[in-house]
Amino acid sequence: MTELNKLTIAEARDLLRSGDVTSKALTEACLSAVEGAGALNAFVHKTPEIALQQAEAADARLKAGDAPALCGIPLGIKDLYCTKGVPSQAASNILEGFKPEYESTVTQNLFDDGAVMLGKLNMDEFAMGSSNETSAYGNAVNPWRRGNDDTALTPGGSSGGSAAAVAADLCLGATGTDTGGSIRQPCALTGTVGIKPTYGRCSRWGIIAFASSLDQAGPMTKTVRDSAIMLQSMCSHDAKDSTSTDLPVPDFEAALTGDIRGKTIGIPREYRIDGIPDEIDAIWKRGTEMLKDAGAKVVDISLPHTKYALPAYYVIAPAEASSNLARYDGVRYGHRAKLAQGDGITEMYEKTRAEGFGHEVQRRIMVGTYVLSAGFYDAYYNRARKVRTLIKRDFEEAFAQGVDAILTPATPSAAFGLGEMKDADPVQMYLNDVFTVTVNLAGLPGVSVPAGLDKQGLPLGLQLIGRPWEEADLLNTALALETAAGFVDKPAKWW
Ligand code: GLN
């Protein structure tokens, strides 16, 4: 048998159920893989005691024939999720020492379904970033490299630790969150699969807020099937999140027939942007051919407001962040600055926030406060909200014409070198999200599927965007793409 940590969730589930493997053995294999992968800096808090306890409980349930969907499956949890009694810091110094008294709804759902938590995963601070370099823990590292070149590459962001951990087989799957691409972009850069479901599919309760009208939880896994299995457990209607939906959760895995004959796939012409590497264009064309060969009808579509998506996102997301992050004031959570004689409450707020937040988070708070200020509210924030409505309408019109899913590149490049963007204008980093933010602005489901390798041997991903609430259908199209692409490559182990 292959090393247990290399199994997919579906494979492990079958071996656990047949009694050929115990959760304890599986969990120990993952814990030792985590121990051996310090160089990836993927896990920022390890929870081996909790993992082994949960594994033991899972083994008892398996033995008793009472095994829920994820019974005994070891997962990593993004540091943005509040996990009871376990450090949950959103990779920020301002939440230093914060151990929540409660469990997020999504992690509770996973644990109710028998999942095992190996620890908390690295990410960009408060999920703001595309390279994992804004983390207070230092960046996670992509297990992939350019051929024999040992330049350390970004695993993407913000869910970079999750992507690195899944790609390096440290866990069977991981949770991510996606506000503007933070599940799909890291998955694309690491050869893994991730879905951001429709806004409202997963409860946001207990997930540290970045931009509440955009944030969604989702799974990051080795295969499309595993994403379907994990998403099933993560979704629920939750009275504690008024934006979570009361729709029934379909059986995502049961929908995976791989048959997409008669489906209509839209190719949006506005996503063909200048300066994109030929290889991205080529993989997009290849993906289109694959879906055609699988029996889908491919049509050209127009999403005319696409070019305004990035500016609108970088107004709306900071605006919401500036409000959400106002609560970190040195009184209620985490870090408080040391005060000098004579300092009052204002100095306490100022010093705490100046010390606790990193540069990118401070930049977002300043931008957000500015666009919400009385003099500029209409010019920026309200205008961005109107643009958001137009972007949503573009998608609605495409779907009304019978399009079932939209195929685009997931990212404008393969993984880039850590530190390469250090001196660049911050807008250069924001351009990473050019293909993904539209989906959050419109509240739609989007999935990233590994489609091939570039000339340097790095994975490239394609994105499929679906109709609202039709994740089952979207995952099935993703399965057809995954099957046709036949991506089986793994990073060569160097860590
Ligand atoms: N990279 C984007 C940003 O920095 C998206 C982040 C996310 O999806 N959490 O805002």
Could you list some keywords that capture this structure?
binds glutamine, 36% helix, 495 residues, alpha/beta
Describe the structure.
The chain is α/β, with parallel strands linked by helices and 495 residues long. It has 15 helices and eleven strands. The chain has one domain: Alpha-Beta Complex (Amidase signature (AS) enzymes). The protein has helices at residues 9-18, 23-35, 48-63, 105-112, 160-167, 184-190, 224-234, 278-293, 309-324, 345-356, 359-371, 377-400, 426-430, 437-442, 471-485, and strands spanning 43-46, 74-78, 116-121, 173-178, 193-196, 216-221, 264-268, 297-301, 405-409, 446-453, 459-466. The chain has an eleven-stranded mixed β-sheet, sandwiched between helices. The longest helix is centred in the last third of the chain and has 24 residues, at 377-400. The mean pLDDT is 97.
Q: What ligands can be seen in this structure?
A: glutamine
So what's the overall shape?
globular
Question: Radius of gyration, rounded?
Answer: 21 Å
Query: Structural class per helix/strand content?
Result: alpha/beta
Largest sheet: 11 strands, mixed
CATH superfamily: Amidase signature (AS) domain
What percent of residues are in strands?
5-15%
- The run of helices and strands is HHEHEHEHEHEEHEHEHHHHEHHEEH
Q: Roughly what is the average pLDDT, rounded to an integer?
A: 97
* Multimeric status of the protein: single chain
Quickly count the domains.
1
Parts with pLDDT < 50 across at least 5 consecutive residues: none
Question: Considering DSSP H and I runs of 4 or more, what fraction of the residues is helical?
Answer: 25-40%
